[in-house]
Every structure is written in structure tokens, then in C-alpha cells.
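Predict the 3D structure for this chain.
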Amino acid sequence: MVHVPGFLVNRIYEKGSLQNTEDGFMLSLKNRIMSIKTYGISALKVTLDGEISIPQEDIELELDGRIFKVSNEPQKELLEFSKNSRLISRAKGHHLSEGKHVLKISFVTHEYGGVSLKIQDNVGEEEYLTLWKRIKKRIKKKKKKVAAKPIIIEGELGGIPLDPDFSRLEKVLRREIPDRVPLFEFDVEIPIKEAFLGREITTAEDDVEFYIRAGYDFVPVIPPFFTPRSMSQAEGEERSWVTESKGIIKTMEDFKNFPWPDPDNVDFSGFYEIAELLPPKMRILGLLSPAAVFGNTSQSMGLTNFSYALFDNIELVEALFEKIGSSYLRIAERLVKVPKLGAVLMSDDLAHTGGLLVNPKIYRKYVFPWYAKFGAILKKADIPFLFHSDGNFMPVFNDLYDCGIRGIHPIEPQAMDIVNVKQEYGDKFCIFGNIDLEYTLTRGTVEEVVTLVKKRLKELAPGGGYGLSASNSIPDYVKPENFRAMVETVKKYGKYPINIE
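Done. Predicted structure below.
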């Protein structure tokens, strides 16, 4: 499930549209990002004010005048949520009291996977604006708009003053010794950010403030690009996952008929919005994710079907690699032009705990040539290239190095021994990881987190070339107190020279 950042939600949610109707309430979304074509959504879950669940059957959707219901079965015709079009959601049988309300919404698209977002608005304090009123209000706002100012925050974390500075990450990527060990995460889910700040995150300013206060030297930003994947969801559960046994693209006809997004239409405005807010030495971590070349190709078919197709439908496999690889190549070409870009991380899971998902020959023929093209673009722009994959992918470390990758993340403790990885490949890569998600951050105590972080700092930080992070990301089921303990401990004990008893 992808959590949509608050500042992106604000770009599509029409403030003031939350209002009561004769038989319930409604809200409106306007697509200001990029056109999306879909055959509908399923598994819709709406929670009102953290207490009331709105049944899926009570919700009606209207897209530019066309009314449709949430359904596990795809619509017969494509629905186009085009740029500047409006999606209205009506919930029947539920009236809202005056004042502030928070709605948490999650759903699974039939093409692109799961999405969750959070909307907050007031009822009774601002009337729902007509189209003409909204236009006039927007014109008025544009006249008053002034340039955003960098966010400067004083304070400390773990007894160390806040001083975001991307140069320390650049030093460890060169396997040099910075002033202290940098923190590194490419995904911290919204509930953890809000628990850390002690308030809701709804704007770009909120997002930047979180990364400053949590001790990071960058803010990760992703260009929204959607490729096909089939998702499953357990009965009564919010979480969804990619289904390995089935996929959206089964035949060449499916491939030709799928509404592939145009990479030239991918919206990059979020990068510019964040860049204006960054303190002088902070930078953006651009993301080529989720899944990138191999993941998006295999997930579009389902990993099982993909594996069979390597032998009996290679034409379809090759068409998918070409389509997805060339799309990400175009995105990379555009990405290096955004302001204050410090580095790029590509996420593309190549392995499970026991080893690679497919024979490395497949990666070398169809995947790594694309990586090398990305690496060439980034090298020309003098932008460091980092890589994320779950599982044990050590057999292809040298291939990744040849593609221009210089940072490896997250070295899962169940898959690889991070001390051994640094001993063998510390002369080629900066190593990021591997604070355990399976137990320590999710079920362990604060004391256990502190102990593990100090152990990793003592083992891996001397000599440089190490940044500390979780062993995947920071999902919403991490204990907030454990996340805080991790980042505070790095600040307290990560100063060079490392001196931990």
C-alpha cells in the first residue's frame, strides 16, 4: 500500500468540498498531477475521524459526470481520470457534524496497486465553492502568492544540534569519513512522521520539517509513475500486497491495450515545491521507484507467470522490459534537471531471503543494461546512484557496480551478514542498513533498539562508508518510540571518531 504524502493530497483534494448532502456527505478530488486511466477500484475503505468505518456499498463515485460503484470486477470501459478532471465521492447515510473531520481512505486500483491517503477539512465553516467561485479564489491566491522560504529549524536530536547537511552523505558515498554517521531512509510512512512531530502532516512544509527534526540530510521525493500490478487484500484488512500468481498483462494483446502512462507527462512539480523549502545544505533524494525495471515487469505479469513466460512467451517479456525500461530512462533524463537534487535511489527488488528471484543471466540480459543507461545519465550530471533491493543479491554486486551504483541498501539481516558485506565490498560501495524490522523496530523495546544501533555503529562506521537505516523502510507498524530511539542514538553515538564501549 502506497501512502500518498500530505502535500500531494493537498494538490488534488479540493479544500472546502467536504460537505453534507441530503442523504450523507461528499468530497471532491481534482487531478492536478497527471492523467490516469483505470478500469475502476476495489477494496475501498473509508474511516471517519478514526472511529467510523463507511461501508463500501454506501459510497458512490462520479468521474466527470459518469457514476460508478466500487467493485471487485473491472469496469467494462476505461475510466480516465484526466488532468484537471474531477472525482466526486458521495457517502450515503452518514451526516457530519460541524467542525474538523479527518478521513482515511485506502483502495486498490485494478491496474496499479494499493493507495492510501488522508484528508482533513472543516464542515460548516466554509461553503462548497462553485466552479466560478473556485476560479476566482485561485486567481486571487495567485496574485497574493509569494516565493516559499527555506525552513530553518533550531533544536537538537540526541543532544546534537540540528544541522542538515547533504555533504556528509556525499562523503560516505565516496567512502570517506564525515563528521558523523548519516541517517538514511527512502520511505517513512505518514503515521510515523506524525507520531514523531506530534501533529498531522498535510503540507510540504510539514514533510520538510519532519526530515529536519528527525536528523536527515535530505528529503526523498518520487515522481508519480504507474505501471500494472495485481494486488490482493485479506478480508477485513487494510494492507494489500502484490500477487505473485496472477497479473494484469497475460498476453501481447493485454500489453497493447493497457493504458500505459506517458513518462513525459509525469508530474515533477513536487520536486520544485520541496526544493524551495530546503535549508541551504539540505538536498533532495530522487526516487526511481517503486519496483523500477525488473519489479514492474515481473509484477505486471505476476512473478509466476513471468517465470513461465521466460520460456514460452519471451516476446511479451521483452516488450515489457523495453516499455518499462525506456519509460524509466526518460524519467531519469528529466529527474537530473530538478533543482537541489543530491542523489538518486532506484528501488528494484531482485532477491528474496535465500537468493536471487531469477537466474542472474536474466538480469544481465534484460535489466542491468537499463541500469547502466541510468548510471550514465547520473554520472554525466554528477549525481550519485544508489540502489535498494530486498533479499540476498550479493551474487550481482559486481554487476551493480559496473552499472555505476555506489550505494547499497538495506542489507536485510535475515538475508546477508552486513559485516561480511562491508568487508567484501566496502571498497566499492557505501553500505546502508540494517536495523532489523522483523523484530527490533517493530516488536522490540527501546533498549533493544539502542543496543542494536550502537552495535552497528561500532562494527560498521569506523573508516566511513556507512549510513544507518532500517532493514527496508519505516512502515506504519514500526513502534514510534523505537523509530525515535534509532535516530536519537545515531546522533548521540555516531560522531567520528567512533568511540563506543
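The chain has a mean pLDDT of 88.
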